[in-house]
Fold:
Amino acid sequence: MTAQQGPGANPWRGLPAAGLAIIVVLVGASFAPAQGYYLNILMQAATYAIGVLGLVVVLGYCGQISIAQAAFFGIGAYAVALGTVDFHVNFFVALLAGVVLSGICGLILGLGTLRLGGHYLGMITISFQQILTLVLTNWIDFTHGPDGVRNVLRPTLFGISLDGGNAYLGLIMAATVLVTLFVWRLKTSRLGRAMQAVRDNELAASTSGINVYGTKVVAFGISAVLGAIGGGLFAGGFRYISPDQFSFGDSIVMLTMALLGGVTSPFGALVGTVALVLLPEWLRFLKQVYLAVYGASVILIMVFLPDGLWGFIDIRMRKRVKPVTGDVAPLPLLAQKGEATDEPVLVVAGLAKHFGGLKAVDGVDVTVRRGTVHALIGPNGSGKTTFINVVTGLYEATGGKITFVGKDITTLAPHNRNRAGLARTYQNIRVFRGMTVLENVMIGAEREGNDVAKDPQAVVARALAALDFVEMRGDAHRLVGDLSYGHQRYVEIARALAASPHTLLLDEPAAGLNLTEKVELGNLLKRLKGHGLTIMIIDHDMNLVEQVADHITVLNFGKRIADGKPQDVLSHPDVIAAYLGEPRKNEAA
Amino acid sequence: MSDFLQLVFQGLGIGAVYALVSLGFVLLIRAASVVNFGQGEFSMLGAYLLVVFFNILGINYYVSIVLSVVIMAGFGLIFAYTTYWPLRFRGGLPVIISTIGASIFLQNMVLWIYGPSSVQIDGLFDSDGIQVGEVFLASQYLAIIVLAALLVLMQYLIFEKTLLGKKLQATSQDKEMASLLGIPVVTMIMITFAYSSALGGFAGILVAPILFVSVNMAGIITLKAFAANIIGGYGSIPGAILGGLALGVAETLGAAYISVPYKDAFAFLMLLAFLMVRPQGLFGEKISEKA
Structure:
């Protein structure tokens, strides 16, 4: 196999560049003026950048809006200031304490709100911000109140005093480089991909084996920790801090920095931070309205530059991406489990889902046997998609029991059902639009419990194999959002296949496809068939269903009205009546 | 006991203001799925307009109120066209961020024009209030409670009894279906923005004599409206009203019996408590996305 250009495969990636960057900033820092205005600007930019990188993780990668970065920054700053001044502890011990405290606050806020929608975190972080400002201002005995803390100490590292301006600047710039490296590598790591999947499509992420809630909490925790690191270094840099440096306004400044630079890239964070540290200095005449200008620019950025300054550059770089060539191993799933036995894989008994008075699914029994293609059909509104949503865990069952490979999964979370081997696609395609085709499919391949999940190289290989199977490998590095509807459907199927599922649930795969694409889909299903993979398919295209199905279950008004071999079911009078309407009494007679 | 009742009365007065702002907030969530972080700015601008017309230009107090509310309705349209319209197809997050931007912009423009000091403004009535038993009912608080109740009643009648109200409801329930039925969805959303802004502005005018008019009132009111919304139940109209009242009472009692400097923290603590224990709020709707 040729070396694949997959992300995350090289463990040393970025380290040489980061080492070089550290040498450059250390040398650069030693030439910087030892004190005064320019030193302050550099220190501000370097420490703010670390806080803004935290926003890249939580907002850029994970799509969760946090508006309290200055509060976490403040926790780090106060930990270092109070720790070194009042408690006389080592600088790094104080910094660590701030980081831990900030991380705990982040986890508590995250655990409480991230199960809910995005705006909850936004509001709760604002609340947290306001409470923190109140505490910092009013708890005078502990925080020194509005007067702030003076004479914050700088550390000694490996016996070298970093008390001098240049030495300390070197420390914080090196820290900025390391944090940038961390955030950059995070993006192409398994966790980073999971975050982006959550950002792009929570439902699809959950049914691709990602613990959505856990991933969000971790992202928010990382951002709180990075905020505290930045703040702690900030306190040492300026040696004087006060509550008004960590106010709501400062959180907004950080948010604007991230958005302006491009919130999905660590380099964007750096660009945005430097720009907005320098800009107010250059635009001093705006001093009185600079926050108003910030506010207006937030709107303008959202409208005209949705991906920020860096995104603008990045899009132009992406156009040069080469298609993937070379050989790949065939998708192993198909070779492994050879024969179709009669063993039941998915047993659904008495399944019910009621929405208030509406009985969308009402006591349905379905048994899907290993290696078969089982079609679930029925008129619009008969409860097919609801059935799949309950089986995959997106809806809680009102009643009944779901057994999958001998295990009761009725109350399992969606990601755990996927990990048990249940993969699905959606009627209205759900792909991770901000990611490449390959990354989308890698998400499937690296689901917990998959045989390749622990090995990044193997994940890439498996993803390419799955893409090869749906004949999409040439587009591996394209953004999935740029593909046609039909091709996005293949990516979704490849994502499900890469997870080596026992059972694949296809929710109206032919919906929205043109005739040629439908024929291709039919061929794809025939290629999938007979290799041991169990498939449940919902579709309206009777032609397709007749071609591939071994067994058909028909739903109408949430109830099962027929079940059996295709030829029997399709000639069943109830089925014909459900599709074509009841013959009138006088005509029937 | 009389102290307690006195505080509850004041809390209801402040709470009625939160309820009105929260109501505007909920209507936008329902009509346009917009979580408007600039909701409090509507109140702040309404109050400043009153300052301009009444304190500066010397126009009659009641005429000033009408002028301010009408201008705020127009402002709601401008807000919609600049903050919501260009981003309406890009999902929830960009619009949220954009409303945050608008909020910063408005606060700081007002700060630039009027400066940081707060402005005192007259109440609706000359008389101080009436004594009922041991409780003194201050006229401004009384007016807020009565006017808020009337507004809520009026809104209920409009929503339930008029065609416009039905169209607005249809829009908030299912935009696609509403538009297929020939309801001008865009117009309905714009009306909601205008109404939400006017409602916020009116709430700001009502509370101005109590809180004084300052730039800072905006942020606090936004957050309390959101908190009221969560406490009452996200997206629920009765929830917004009861949540606002509950919040007003809780923070007034908290300030009196526990701590004055941390008065604003009580709302947030209540919000945190609800999110942890009962995230669906008092009148909660199940939070789920359609697959």
